[in-house]
Automatic annotation (TrEMBL):
It comes from Sphingobium vermicomposti. Residues 140-218 form the CR-type domain. Residues 6-71 form the J domain. CXXCXGXG motif repeats lie at residues 153-160, 170-177, 192-199, 206-213. Zn(2+) 2 binds at C170, C173, C192, C195. Participates actively in the response to hyperosmotic and heat shock by preventing the aggregation of stress-denatured proteins and by disaggregating proteins, also in an autonomous, DnaK-independent fashion. Unfolded proteins bind initially to DnaJ; upon interaction with the DnaJ-bound protein, DnaK hydrolyzes its bound ATP, resulting in the formation of a stable complex. GrpE releases ADP from DnaK; ATP binding to DnaK triggers the release of the substrate protein, thus completing the reaction cycle. Zn(2+) 1 binds at C153, C156, C206, C209. HAMAP family: DnaJ. InterPro entries: DnaJ, DnaJ_C, DnaJ_domain, DnaJ_domain_CS, HSP40/DnaJ_pept-bd, HSP_DnaJ_Cys-rich_dom, HSP_DnaJ_Cys-rich_dom_sf, J_dom_sf. One of its GO terms (molecular function) is heat shock protein binding. It is found in: Cytoplasm. This is Chaperone protein DnaJ. GO terms for cellular component: cytoplasm.
């Protein structure tokens, strides 16, 4: 598929040629070498394909930039999904792995437009949803999961070929994985139907995996959940996803964490929040309450005298740990003053006695409120 000739030379243009010049050069040459003109001679057809390929690359500013930067060999290798190198997914790779990453970043997973050989495509990334408690999110957790995931077939070592038999180059596409067909003036490229894009066909498919090169197997993975994870945190287990077809690298497994609601605490980042009922006597006289922390300790929260409902008290460093970092967030306690609902006769007596001594100065807010009402009513 790939010509050895430089794309600029093929199109007979300067390396600095602009898009318009490249386009008209292509048009001229495509007319010249079009099979209708050359009568389908193989030389003309090859030339026509090469010119089309050069134009496909140079007309796209991104592809052209990559071609200019990395040169012909690197570009066509990337287009073929790495060719014999097999190192485009950054695993056990030789010199091309970094290059592969660059191409992936620019052009997405599948490399250049439709060019990637499927046999080289890495396996799919998998998602595993895991529910944990807020307590586990606080402390972190070492756990194991069991998943059923496709893994390289042992019988054929992932090749897909029955042991003792080999693979041969696909005769339909001559190993390119893509076939080109003409539709009028245009050349369309599509995945080879003979080999599904692999470029190679198996003489005799492995009986264990039916030629897929991978089989579903249960496996147990240990997962380390660090302290401080939040709802929606993802943990990546590199290479633990689905095996690639016929020896291609595996994808990754992503564990999506879901933190269950806690009966007392709400969480916002590293801040823990809870509402805490406080009796009217403690609210009026001051005192302290105990709040159990997720660290297993009791936190004593000082209540200043005269505190109102809704007031928040911050306890530094008693919140959630910082994920992959140092320190902890704060614990925020919101006071809810609770009116007593079950009074003994004695308590009622004391409160009646208290009421008899009230002048209105004890509760400035009430006094202010009622004087405003008086203004409204015009008294
Ligand atoms: Zn097999
Ligand atoms: Zn083929």
């Amino acid at each position: 598929m790939s010509s050895e000739l430089d794309y600029y030379e093929l199109l007979e243009v300067e390396r600095t040629a602009d898009a318009g010049v490249i386009k008209s050069a292509y048009r001229k040459l495509a007319m010249k070498y079009h099979p209708d003109k050359t009568g389908g001679c193989s030389d003309g057809e090859a030339r026509f394909k090469a010119v089309s390929e050069a134009y496909e690359c140079l007309k796209d500013p991104q592809k052209r930039a990559a071609y200019d930067r990395y040169g012909h060999a690197a570009y066509t290798n990337a287009q073929n999904g790495g060719g014999g190198g097999g190192g485009f997914n950054g695993r056990g790779a030789g010199g091309f792995s970094d290059l592969g990453d660059i191409f992936e970043t620019i052009f997405g997973q599948n490399g250049f437009g439709g060019g990637g050989r499927q046999s080289q495509r890495r396996g799919a990334d998998l998602r595993y949803d895991m529910e944990i408690s807020l307590n586990e999110a606080y402390h972190g957790k070492q756990t194991e999961i069991e998943i059923e995931v496709s893994a390289p077939c042992d019988s054929c070592d992932g090749s897909g070929a029955q042991p003792g038999t080999g693979v041969k180059t696909c005769t339909t596409c001559h190993g390119h994985g893509q076939v080109r067909a003409q539709q009028g003036f245009f050349v369309v490229e599509r995945t080879c139907p003979g080999c599904n894009g692999a470029g190679q066909v198996i003489e005799s498919p492995c009986r264990s995996c039916r030629g897929e090169g991978r089989v579903d197997k249960p496996k147990t993975l240990s997962v380390n959940i660090p302290a401080g994870v939040d709802d929606g945190t993802r943990i990546r287990l590199s290479g633990e996803g689905e095996a690639g077809a016929r020896g291609a690298p595996s994808g990754d497994l992503y564990i999506f964490l879901h933190v269950k609601r806690h009966s007392i605490f709400e969480r916002d980042g590293t801040t823990l929040f809870c509402r805490c009922p406080v009796s009217i006597t403690t609210a009026a006289l001051g005192g302290s309450i105990e709040v159990p922390g997720l660290d297993g300790q009791r936190h004593e929260i000082k209540i200043p005298s005269g505190i109102q409902s809704g007031k928040q008290i911050r306890q530094r460093g008693a919140g959630m740990p910082v994920l992959n970092g140092r320190g902890q967030g704060d614990l925020v306690v919101q006071v809810d003053v609770e009116t007593p609902t079950r009074l003994t006769a004695r308590q009622r007596e004391l409160l009646e006695e208290f009421r008899a001594t009230e002048t209105g100065d004890e509760c400035p807010q009430s006094t202010g409120f009622f004087s405003k009402l008086k203004e409204i009513w015009g008294d």
